[in-house]
Amino acid sequence: xxxxxxxxxxxxxxxxxxxxxxxxxxxxxxxxxxxxxxxxxxxxxxxxxxxxxxxxxxxxxxxxxxxxxxxxxxxxxxxxxxxxxxxxxxxxxxxxxxxxxxxxxxxxxxxxxxxxxxxxxxxxxxxxxxxxxxxxxxxxxxxxxxxxxxxxxxxxxxxxxxxxxxxxxxxxxxxxxxxxxxxxxxxxxxxxxxxxxxxxxxxxxxxxxxxxxxxxxxxxxxxxxxxxxxxxxxxxxxxxxxxxxxxxxxxxxxxxxxxxxxxxxxxxxxxxxxxxxxxxxxxxxxxxxxxxxxxxxxxxxxxxxxxxxxxxxxxxxxxxxxxxxxxxxxxxxxxxxxxxxxxxx
Length: 345
Ligand code: NCD
Ligand code: ZN
Prior knowledge:
With 345 residues, this protein is α/β, with parallel strands linked by helices. Helix content is 33%, strand content 16%.
C-alpha cells in the first residue's frame, strides 16, 4: 500500500528569491509547495527601506501569483531609520528585519560593523514586536570559519539579547550543537531556523574526495556531531525550531569557479528530503510541526488552512538536476541518497 502523509501547507522562514531573470526562473519552485516565505533582502543593492520592500514584493507576486505570500524583510544597516522600520511593519509591508554582520556572506557588504549604531533600531523593534533575524557568524578574520557561529553567540547575540530582552530573535540557519543548546536554554523570545541541507551534509561531504561547490554554503557545514544535533533538534517537537531552507540559488558558473559563491539551492526537492530525514529518525509525526506549525506560531501568524500531501513510492522519485533560468542553469541540491517521498497535491 502506498504510504501517504497529509499535513498543513508548509512555509519557508528563510528564502532567497533574487531578482530579475533568476527570480522568474526559481520563484515557482518555492510557490509550488510553500504557502509563504520570509524573503531575504540581500539583493544588490540591498532592500533597506519599506518602499523598496514593497516594490520587491510586487516583483515576486508578478511571478508567483496570489497563491504564494512573500513575507518581506529589511536589511539592517548602521543608518537604518527606526521610524521607517516600525512604519513598514505597521503597514504590513515587512515581517522582520535581517541582521548581517558586514562581510559575513553573499551581498553583505552593507551589514553592521558597530552594533552600538543599531541600538535604537533594536529598541524600537523590541517595543513593536518585530523579529530580528540574525545571520549568526562573526567576521573577525582571526576566527576560524568553523567557529564563527559559536563565537557569534558569545560576542554578539548574547549581548544583544541581554541589552534588549524583549527583542524577539531568530537565529537563522543554525549549524552547531552550540546554537541548538543556546536556543534550548533561552526564553521563548528566541527561535532558530534549520535548513534542509544542514540536516543532510557535514563538512566531509563538502571536502572529501574533491571539493563540491554545490555543497558550499554559509554558515559552512560543520562536523557530523553537529549535523546530528540539528536532526535531533528539528525532529524533537521543540516548537522553537522550524524550517528556513536558505535555498540560495547561484548560476552554475558562479558556483563552479575558482572563487565559488556560497549557497545551496534546495527549493525543488526540500520536502522530499525532509520527509526522508524525519522518517529515518523515526519522527515523521514531527514533520508537520517543523515545516508548517512552529514557524507561524513564533511569527504570531495563523497556520495555513490548506494542506499538502506527500506520497512514498516503492522506487526512487526523480527531480530535475538543474533548473534553467534566464540567468543560467542552477544546480538542484543532491542529498546523496535516493528520494522516495514526493509532493502529490
Ligand atoms: C546566501 C546567499 O547566497 O545569498 N548564501 C548562503 O550560503 N546561505 C546568503 C546567506 O544566507 O548567508
Ligand atoms: Zn540565507
